[in-house]
Amino acid sequence: MKKKILVDARMVYPKPHGIGVYVSNIVKASKFFNDFDVVFLINENAQGDLTWKNQNTLIAQSNFLDIKSELFEIPKILKKNQFNAYHTPSFSSLYFCPVPYIQTIHDLNHLKFGSFLQKIYYQTVLKRFAKEATVLSTVSFFSQFEISEWLNLKKEKIEIISNAFDFEKEKISTSESAVFEKYKVKPNEYFICLSNDKPHKNVSFLIESFERYFNSTCPKKYPLIVSLKSGKSKGNNQSGIMYSDSISYDEGQVLVRHARALLFPSLYEGFGRPPVEALLSGVPVIVSNINVHQEVLSGFNEPMAMLLDPLNQDQWVNALIKNATDDRVYVDIAQATKILDRYSFQSFRNKIDQLYKRVLKVE
User: Fold this and answer.
1) Does an H or E element contain 183, and which?
2) CATH number of 4-164+344-360
3) What is the CB neighbour count within 10 angstroms for residue 64?
4) Is the pTM of this model over 0.85?
5) Which distant-in-sequence residues (6+ apart) come within 8 Å of 25 by Cβ?
6) Residue 279's beta-bridge partner residues?
7) How far is 262 from 127, CA to CA, in rounded Å?
8) What would be the CATH architecture of the domain defined by 176-342?
9) How much of the chain exceeds pLDDT 70, in percent?
């Protein structure tokens, strides 16, 4: 009888986000595993999601980060179903785990920018659970260093299993022309920012910088599509900003692939997936010059990747003007290969496979 591991996948929602995409890659990778069984813990409302077609799943009553419920429900599920190991690929933690477990911490965002309760959760529940993990992993050298400092562990004790990317563009079910018509833009004649409105995403700073560009004497004025509700941050259509918090995954893919540039002004990230996805689609990126962007985007220089001070509006205004007035640039295959060599899906799959075998003690 094969050994089996339970992977918490309750954070995989129809609207993509960093950790959800990471877990979706584990789902794809699991199809290649032959020496053990992977079962994914999902919510009842995810049953119709095609992600779970032909996958082994279990339904949890507790929602992701429902602390009152998950701390007690998950250990019971592990014991009742006789799992041999558990993987929590996020900051969701337990008081007690009856089997060997893997904890993946992507970053310390909530510890730095979160609410009072989130910080308490990190310092009490997550910190203890992470230190006692059979294997502790993360997604970048930057996060490895930060987590090692926080937990007072040697860096070598924290494994790096980074995000995975595929050079093949995903098939989009949405008509590109319909997307352009809906958002009233033309290909290569708009900027896009798909960040949320959390403090570390720094979107209000970007909007103020964009307004300065749009009201400048620059001869070319292109609009900015922002994935937020109007009114959540400063700005309006008169300043060239179009708000929409209902951008579907397929629409987002179309809009990124045909933008003049993806704008990503984060103050903090554990990896920063969107800029890499944009570059692989041939789209320039204008991003903050934080440590993790310098790590992940190494090898990409202007005009493909402009790394700017996330607190210096003058730099961002000048970068927008430069992008708007210069000829459109595209990434070449050689540059894209640099990313894929570092973050290939095959490498990710192999690392997860070996990790699960080790924790399950499968020869």
Assistant:
1) helix 176-183
2) 3.40.50.2000
3) 19
4) yes
5) 163, 164, 345, 348
6) none
7) 35
8) 3-Layer(aba) Sandwich (3.40)
9) 93
